[in-house]
């Protein structure tokens, strides 16, 4: 049975793991909104002729706002290379990204927490994690870095050691800009992680093709531990019994929210007022202590 604090965290319509088996190979697919996570999963199924399909968008807008998992048996050709996977299933988890235009960051984290905790409670272990990031266009913003830090806290040290950083949008990136953009992404992703793996171990250039998607999965299988790994968010919620606001991921998200409050300009527009109200609500959900100075600065009152 789920632990008491997990039951309190769940809403009636929350997605949780389905058809769980303890020998399943769990692969969460994470990254920014609209980066192509659903397309990646569909490419995995395309090569096997499966009819399963994850809803995907054609542009940078996200169509994933809830957790969804997709199960596929490890093909014989793959099992021949990785004998420990024979007869087992991959469970690819499509996750919503932060900075979604319709769902708050705190709600995204809650949905992630509920699903991951339900999987851990069902004795499923993570084989590895795919974190997708677009190589083009634009530069990495402070908000992007904040989201990466939240992801790192979701994984913890053990989880980060099994992350594949998959860069996308290579078909749109000028050839001469690619290497510098790739270095920028890697540096920003690993700069707070003291035991960062080498680029060859941790990164892949992900093309929009079944072959490239399977190459990424096979890299995870090659590095996978037989017993799997437990992500920090799972351990803190289920084993330690922490509430969501007490977890490392929620604390990091609180830092992001406070930065966003301070960075908002003071033009007095309706859009700004609405954004402040949204951020205040998120701050309260995560039990962020807002000082009187900050409350007064932005017109937020108890």
UniProtKB/TrEMBL annotation:
InterPro entries: GTP-bd, P-loop_NTPase. It holds the Pfam family MMR_HSR1. One of its GO terms (molecular function) is GTP binding. Residues 29-103 form the G domain. Gene3D superfamilies: P-loop containing nucleotide triphosphate hydrolases. It comes from the Eukaryota. This is G domain-containing protein.
């Amino acid at each position: 049975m789920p632990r008491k604090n997990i039951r309190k965290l769940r809403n009636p319509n929350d997605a949780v793991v389905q058809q769980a088996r303890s020998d399943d190979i769990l692969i969460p697919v994470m990254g920014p909104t609209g980066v192509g996570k659903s397309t990646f999963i569909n490419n995995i199924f395309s090569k096997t002729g499966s009819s399963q399909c994850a809803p995907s968008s054609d542009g940078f807008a996200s169509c994933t706002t809830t957790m969804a998992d997709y199960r596929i048996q490890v093909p014989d050709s793959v099992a021949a290379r990785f004998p420990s996977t024979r007869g087992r299933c991959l469970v690819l988890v499509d996750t919503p990204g932060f900075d979604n235009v319709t769902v708050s960051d705190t709600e995204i984290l809650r949905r992630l927490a509920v699903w991951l905790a339900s999987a851990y409670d069902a004795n499923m272990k993570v084989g590895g994690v795919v974190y997708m990031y677009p190589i083009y266009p634009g530069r990495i913003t402070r908000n992007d870095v904040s989201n990466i830090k939240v992801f790192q806290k979701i994984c913890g040290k053990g989880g980060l050691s099994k992350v594949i950083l998959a860069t996308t949008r290579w078909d749109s990136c000028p050839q001469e800009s690619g290497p510098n953009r790739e270095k920028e992404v890697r540096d920003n992703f690993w700069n707070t992680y003291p035991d960062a793996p080498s680029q060859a171990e941790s990164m892949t250039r992900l093309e929009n093709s079944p072959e490239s998607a399977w190459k990424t999965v096979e890299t995870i299988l090659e590095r996978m531990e037989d017993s799997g790994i437990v992500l920090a968010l799972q351990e803190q919620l289920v084993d330690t019994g922490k509430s969501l606001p007490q977890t490392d991921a929620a604390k990091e998200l609180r830092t992001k929210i406070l930065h966003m409050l301070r960075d908002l300009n003071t033009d007095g527009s309706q859009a700004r007022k609405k954004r402040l109200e949204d951020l205040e609500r998120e701050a309260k959900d995560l039990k962020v202590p807002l000082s009187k100075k900050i409350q007064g600065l932005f017109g937020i009152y108890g």
